Amino acid sequence: MSGAPAPVESPRRAVLLGVGNILLTDEGVGVRAVERFGERYVLPEGVEILDGGTSAMEMLDELENLDLLVVVDCVRVGRPPASVVVLTGDEVPAFFRQRLSPHQVGLSDVFATMLLTGRAPQAIVVIGVQPVAIELSMSLTPEVEAVMPEVLDAIHASFEANGYTVSPRQGEAREAA
Amino acid sequence: MSQRITIDPVTRIEGHLRVDVDVKDGFVSKAWSSGQMWRGVENILIGRDPRDAWAITQRICGVCTTVHAICSVRAVENALDLELPVNAQYIRNLIILAHAVHDHIVHFYHLSALDWVDVVSALKADPDKASALAESLSSWSGNSKHEFRKVKERLAGFVSTGQLGIFTNGYWGHPAMKLPPEVNLLAVAHYLQALEVQRHANKIVSILGSKTPHIQNVAVGGVSNPLAVDSQAVLTVERLMAVKGWIDKLADFVKNVYLVDVAAIGAFYADWTTYGRGIVEYLSVPDIPLDGKGTKFALPGGFLTDGDLKKYTSIKSFDDAYFRDGVSEAIKHSWYEYKGGDAVSLHPYDGETTPKYTDFQDDGKYSWLKSPTFYGKPAQVGPLSRVLAMLAEGHEPTVKYATETLDRVSSIAGATVGLEAMHSTIGRHAARAISCAVQVDELANQWDLLLGNMAKGDLKTFNRPTFPKGEQRGFGFHEAPRGMLSHWVVIEDGKIRNYQCVVPTTWNAAPRNEKDQPGAYEACLTGNPVADPEQPLEVLRTVHSFDPCLACAVHVLDKENESSVTVTAR
Predict the structure, then answer these.
(1) Which residues on chain B are in Cβ contact (under 8 Å) with A108?
(2) Taking CB atoms and an 8 Å cutoff, what residues of chain A touch B555?
(3) Residue ranges per domain, chain A?
(4) Which residue, of B175, B369, B411, B429, is most buried by count of CB atoms within 10 Å of its CB?
(5) pLDDT tens digits for A36-49?
(6) Mind giving me the DSSP string for B361-400?
(7) pLDDT per residue as tens digits for the range B298-320
(8) Contact B196 A1 (CB under 8 A)
């Protein structure tokens, strides 16, 4: 294995990854967002949804050599609670590089590993939601629940901006979008 | 005059752990281990259907997903006195063992090797000499000159891009780093190869568990995998053949690379066999059940005291009263309160999870972890406990791999290294590798048992549970990668009334108990050297040797806070 990027002629592969702990209120926003996105939108071939929970190296296989990785996560970026932020381009490496999280064996290590082996995704978008609460509960706070349409729109926009056609499912999807 | 070092959070582990040490004349004189997140996950389970508990508990933590799922169904099955089809045991056993092998490989190469291996020094290595050294130790195919030259080139390219900083808290150039450049290069090459190999273990878990990282196939009463010898839609012989192929590749790596590397690195750090001894009460449980009830096991376990193989009591079944009655948890130094006050220690069936936060008080409360004991004694759990128990039982594969490893260390170090050396920081790494070799062999064995049973025409994987009226109590235990895990459930009229998880890291990272006896980390850190208080690498070595996993795993990425080590002199 030389670790070279995937050859151009291979089909485009993208992953929509939700991370976080669903037992801790808004900490689970990433997982909840990708679940709902899958219920409401039809993803083109080659795009997969991954509920990463709080796992790490187990995800390596699915995250290597991607054309696009869209990560949805709970982030502390000094914004008001329930703010939605979208990080792209130069902002993304900082998101991974700084040891920001009490969850130490996480995405940062997977990303570091992919950089070392030359298999990091071609493009990464991080969609972050500033939490209102991270206490013990399996549902999101009403404030974060209220910005969910904005999160789903941001996911949709990230795929469209990278040349993927993502269309709403019939029926219920319309009101959500 | 002593200096206080606070490491908060400890990096390259799961969850939020804070460690404080007082350092006097270059050695740790006193230590405190503090879990910094409230793990009150049990409260979420109260009132729920016991059949759903496994799916929720596997979300406690990202590293230990499968282990909580397995332990939870075992607890409920124990409460219902439910026997499983033997196929369900074999399939669970395959998942358990594949997960353990994955976890041990990743822990050593990707999470803890950076404590011992100086990646930057590898750039000074002569790849041909490194290859010659590696080939003198092992027949592994990935030790060629060509391979090592390629790895050095890749590493040089990576370092030159300035991205090395992504491996946080790598203590490059630290005075406690002792490996020659060639051994560092060898370790980096195997780090990269381990990345490839760990995939095989993960694939086994995803094929059998239907999905990773969260498995879907477990159920109270068995597993939901339909077995078939012909149909395509289910777990077929063809898929199982692929699993066998991955098992063989894992076995090759574990025996010819991992075991050898631990011995080689251990031999260069012989002084670390004298640090990190701490508590020598060792608790493990038997696992890999071979019958539907859990009365016969492939891998034995029990309680060993005074670090003495002769002072050992075996734990014999999933319903073992000696185990059940021995566990209790104290909160004198934990941020909880019991109705009965701080002096009592409660059995998990009667456990209470009522938070009472104070500040960090050196002599008072200072951790979100409770302090568990076994018959009143703090105990170490993990691969070292497992290996010592299996040695005490005369388990042949364990005796073989332990002897082979100690002989190899002795030969590389040029001095006799005996079993006594295992009670140490480096000994915990050696035990993990020995355990991994035993487990990878058992993985192949369980595969044979499953296929053999299917060939006899037995394809049953599930016995439907029924929940009677009234109260049932049950416990489930599991020898997880990080050590003995237990779940305790009280069911009333088909709903959960109480649920307690006593997780491995709670045993090891526990604060002082009701008798002020230190937990395993605290005891093991005392006497550790610290060359440079600004870079307390040695403290991390001992803590990481336990493979910490604080099963509370909050995962909020914090863009504002970059600091991970605070040093205060006083």
Answers:
(1) 166, 168
(2) 19-21, 27, 54, 73-74, 101-103, 106
(3) 14-167
(4) B369
(5) 999 999 999 999 99
(6) -TTS--BSS-EEEETTB--B-SHHHHHHHHHHTT-HHHHH
(7) 999 999 999 999 999 999 999 99
(8) yes
The model's pTM is 0.90
B3-569 fold: Cytochrome-c3 Hydrogenase; chain B (1.10.645)
- Tell me the HSE value of B329 on the side-chain side, using a 13 A CA sphere: 28
**Amino acid at residue number A93:** P
Residue B35: what pLDDT?
A: 79
* The CATH number of domain A14-167, selected from 1.10.10.60, 3.30.870.10, 3.40.50.1450, 3.40.50.1390: 3.40.50.1450
CB pairs under 8 A between A and B: 165
> Encoding tokens for residue B426?
């480096």
Cα distances from B285 to residues A171, B316, B548, in angstroms, run 53, 8, 19
Question: How far, CA to CA in Å, does A100 sit from each of B193, B506, B566?
Answer: 28, 24, 15
Which chain B residue shows the shortest CA-CA distance from A54?
A: B62
Beta bridge partners of A82: none
CA distances from B311 to A1, B276, B305, B425, B520 (A): 50, 21, 6, 22, 19
Tokens at B207, concatenated? 């094929």
**Token pair belonging to B532:** 């440079």
Cβ distance B555 to A106 less than 8 Å, yes or no, reads: yes
Identify which of B495, B491, B518, B493 has the alpha carbon closest to the alpha carbon of residue B507: B518
Using only C-alpha atoms, chain B has a radius of gyration, in whole angstroms, of 23
